[in-house]
Amino acid sequence: MLGSDHQWSPRIGAVYYIPRSQTAIRASFNRLFMLPQVENVLLSSSAQARRLSPFVASIGSGGAPVHAERVSAYEIGISQAVRTAFRLDLNLWNRNVQNFDDPNVLFSTAIVFPNSVASGFARGLEVRIDVPSHHGWSAYLSYSNSRIQETGPINGGLFLTDEVIDIGSGTHFVPDHDQRNVGDLGITYMFPRRPLWTTFSRDMKVVCQLSSIPTSWTR
Which of 87, 115, 138, 197 is at 20 to 30 A from 209, Cα to Cα? Predict the structure, then answer.
């Protein structure tokens, strides 16, 4: 057996509704726990496999066994109806993570080896406007701005090339899947007296970097 992890995972949420103004104020806290994927986890946590890692030169061991991901998630938000015209939702969220799960892909194949980054955070703001149905037409518009940062070292995985950045203890970097700004628009029309509808949607994303190699700096 590779090892064992455990954690209490409480979840709590509350909503305060003001009928006169049709305002809902909400807050929640989640403590999440996610085990690493089973596929190739024994090899990823093998001391012999870690000797092949290019990180050996910088941190001496090429990483450590992969442990479960632990997340503390906080969220606060407000929902406000503006007469019958539309509803506005505003949401602020924050995630503090230990053992950030981020599987390593072997030579751009479908074969993955579990690995984790020691710690990190993700936080952001989400805004959404929903327009209720008027004469068959309804719509929504949303925008989110978020930031993700991870801190090394990397544990587990199977890195056989030097085409990776040296991420040692205390190295901060932005993962290549970070999407800083995301917008979404949708319009729907329901045909009267017919079970037919049509929808147009548009998704727009702006990533914070163009390279697949993370931008990093060491404290």
Answer: 115
Q: Is the dihedral of CA 46, 155, 105, 218 positive or negative?
A: negative
Task: At 120, list the tokens.
Answer: 């990190």
Show the beta-strand stretches assigned E in the chain: 11-18, 23-34, 69-82, 86-101, 104-105, 112-113, 115-134, 137-156, 171-173, 179-190, 197-207, 216-218
pTM above 0.90, yes or no: no
pLDDT digits (tens, 9 = 90+) for 65-106: 788 899 999 999 999 999 889 999 999 999 999 998 877 777
DSSP state of 63: -
Separation CA 31–CA 68 (nearest Å): 13
Question: What residues does each domain of the chain span?
Answer: 11-218
Q: Is the dihedral of CA 37, 31, 28, 205 positive or negative?
A: negative
